[in-house]
Design brief:
It comes from Eisenbergiella tayi. This is MarR family transcriptional regulator. InterPro entries: ArsR-like_HTH, HTH_MarR-typ, WH-like_DNA-bd_sf, WH_DNA-bd_sf. The chain is mainly alpha-helical. It has a domain of about 80 residues: Orthogonal Bundle (Arc Repressor Mutant, subunit A), CATH 1.10.10. Helix content is about 65%, strand content about 10%. The chain is built from 6 helices and 3 strands. A 3-stranded antiparallel sheet has the order 1-3-2. Strand 2 and strand 3 form a beta hairpin. Helix 1 packs across helix 5 and helix 2 crosses helix 5. The longest helix is centred in the N-terminal third of the chain and has 22 residues. The protein is globular and about 55 Å long.
């Protein structure tokens, strides 16, 4: 097999994308959270009141990493931890009203980021690219 750069390029894209997205959030006046924390909020905006374990699975963040991020977000009043009413051993993550109010603003920044990310791509190229990334992700998570 010839030498490949896929993993290296994905890593670089992730780093640059994170810096660009953080800057775009700042330009939009969103100072309550950063891009990495936005991943957590994105999942919770889709489905609120999730157990930490499920949030970890959906974001791909290790539980220890996620816990520290949740601590900082809770301090800023973006979310809160609540004990599950049926199982007090389980902690659920719930959005605050403040976080819900930021959803539209975040979506505008996210749409602008997508436009930048896919500039010059056709719909067909975007579909093929995303299918390829999903295939790589499946390959990695099957091990």
């Amino acid at each position: 097999m010839r030498a490949t750069n896929g993993g290296f390029l994905i890593s670089q894209v992730k780093q640059v994308q994170g810096r660009v997205f953080d800057a775009m959030l700042q330009e939009a006046g969103i100072e309550e959270f950063n891009g990495a924390q936005g991943r957590i909020l994105y999942i919770l905006w889709q489905e609120d009141n999730l157990p930490i374990v499920e949030l970890s699975r959906r974001t791909g963040l290790a539980k220890t990493t996620l816990t520290g991020m949740l601590d900082r977000m809770e301090e800023k009043g973006i979310l809160e931890r609540r004990f599950d009413k049926k199982d007090r051993r389980q902690v659920r993550i719930v959005l605050s009203d403040k976080a819900r109010e930021l959803n539209d603003k975040y979506n505008q920044v996210s749409d602008a980021m997508n436009e930048r990310f896919y500039r010059g791509f056709t719909d067909s190229e975007i579909k093929q690219f995303e299918e390829t990334l999903e295939r790589i992700l499946r390959n990695l998570t099957q091990e």
